[in-house]
Amino acid sequence: MTDPTQSTAEPEAGDSPTRAPGRVEMFAATAVAHLSAQPKLRLAAAALAVLAGLWTFSMQFVGRTPERAPTAIEAPAAPTPAPARSGGRALAALPDMPEPPVAMPRLAAAPIRPVAEVQELRASAVDCTVTLQTTRLAAATLAVDVEAPCDAGARMDVIQGDLEFALRLDADGRAALEIPVLSAAAAVAVAVAGRDPVTALEQMADLGAYRRIALQWQGPAGFELHAFEGGAGYGEDGHVAPDTPRDMTRALSGKGGYLISLGDPSLPGAGQALVYTVPAGNPAAIAVEIPVTQANCGQAVTGTTIQATPGIPTEVQPVSLTVPGCDAVGDILMLGDLPAPQALAAN
Q1: In the predicted model, what is the mean pLDDT of residues 56-80?
Q2: What is the chain's Cα-based Rg?
Q3: Which positions ≥6 away from 153 have C-beta within 8 Å?
Q4: What number of CA atoms fall less than 13 Å from residue 303's CA on the CB side?
Q5: Which helix (H) or strand (E) covers residue 335, if one does?
Q6: CA 66 to chain CA mean position, Å
Q7: Domain layout of the chain by residue ranges
Q8: Strand 271-279 vs strand 258-262: parallel, antiparallel, or unpaired?
Q9: Phi then psi for 124, rounded to 5 degrees?
Q10: Which residues are within 8 A (CB) of 271 and not within 5 positions of it... i.e. 6 or more apart?
């Protein structure tokens, strides 16, 4: 009896690789029948061997040619990585990386406004009202503070009773000054150029304790006010003048008087003033002088003296003269002492 596992037939020359699957099936059936009586462990090992043989046998008849081994000269080709598996299933190939995003266009820079425009906007929001604040000080003196936010450097005219002068606001539109008042009910009016005047009123209870003499003028007249206390001469301690004005503490101590200057001579046609204050009981001779300068030589000058003495009405006297010619520059024109006001005799 012929063993079915063996075959004496040789493959015919005309056999083609397409007949291989029939022989594979015959080989597998014969192997399975032969191993059916073996133990399970051996069956498993044999099954693996049968599968390996089937794979090798099928490769020979399907027509796949084994890969040629690399030669010493030819570099081996890089192996193609096997697809990754997850749970026994091949993973799909990853998609190609997307193209890099298109660069976003840059936004145009915002226009920068000139500083002048910003300043104009700020200026429009500022309250341009002129404000005046007054404070009573010692020695019948009034502190005056003016604010004009929109009028930096502007001219400011000041009136207090018969006293008139002008000055210039600072770079912030402010001015701070002290005015020796000439009346107990001290009314102050301030007029900043181009603005409505502002006023204030203060009661000065201590004015009766002082004698006050003022000399005022306009332009480059060059007037000077001199006081000679207690019979003092030029240059002595009791001589009070523009070069030796003293200060308020001297009057407050009762030792003598002091001189204060008001107005800005750099302003064209501005009023200027010199005001002398001395305790009412202290004797002092008052003189008016005019140094001859290139600015006033040969010119007609005018001014006003104002004397406020306790118990006597305020006396206002004009001063008018022609200054000597310019060949006298450096000389001093002395107008003499001012007569002290006299009380009116009672009827």
Answers
A1: 50
A2: 60
A3: 168, 169, 170, 171, 173
A4: 26
A5: strand 332-337
A6: 85
A7: 19-61, 127-337
A8: antiparallel
A9: -65, -25
A10: 157, 164, 165, 166, 216, 217, 218, 263
Q: Give the C-alpha separation, 17 to 131, whole Å.
A: 118
Sign of CA dihedral 15, 20, 26, 30: positive
Do residues 130 and 148 lie in contact, with contact meaning Cβ atoms separated by under 8 Å? yes
User: Quick check: 122 pLDDT over 50?
Assistant: yes
Residue 83 corresponds to which tokens in the numbers above? 């697809």
Q: What are phi and psi of 91, to 5 degrees?
A: -80, 145
For 171-211, give the DSSP string. TTSEEEEEEE-SSSEEEEEEEETTS--EEEEEE-TTGGGEE
pTM for this one? 0.64
CA atoms of 253 and 58, how far apart (whole Å): 135
Residue 259 to residues 55, 117, 162, Cα–Cα distance (Å): 130, 47, 18
Q: In what order do the strands lie in the sheet with 174-180?
A: 131-137, 141-147, 174-180
Q: Indicate the length of the chain as a whole number.
A: 347
**How far apart are alpha carbons 164 and 303 in whole angstroms?**
11
CA-wise closest residue to 152 among 138, 170, 136, 137:
170
pLDDT tens-digit readout, 77-100: 555 555 555 444 555 555 666 665
Distance CA 228, CA 5 (A): 159
Q: Which of 208, 278, 226 is nearest to 247 (CA)?
A: 278
CB atoms within 10 A of CB 183: 16
**Beta strands of 92-172 (E only): which ranges?**
131-137, 141-147, 155-160, 163-168
CA distance 118 to 179: 39
- Residue 146 identity (one-letter amino acid): V
pLDDT of residue 339: 87
Selection from 180, 226, 203, 209 nearest residue 309 by Cα: 209
Residues 6+ apart with CB under 8 A from 217: 223, 271, 272, 273, 301, 302, 303, 304, 319
pLDDT of residue 253: 95
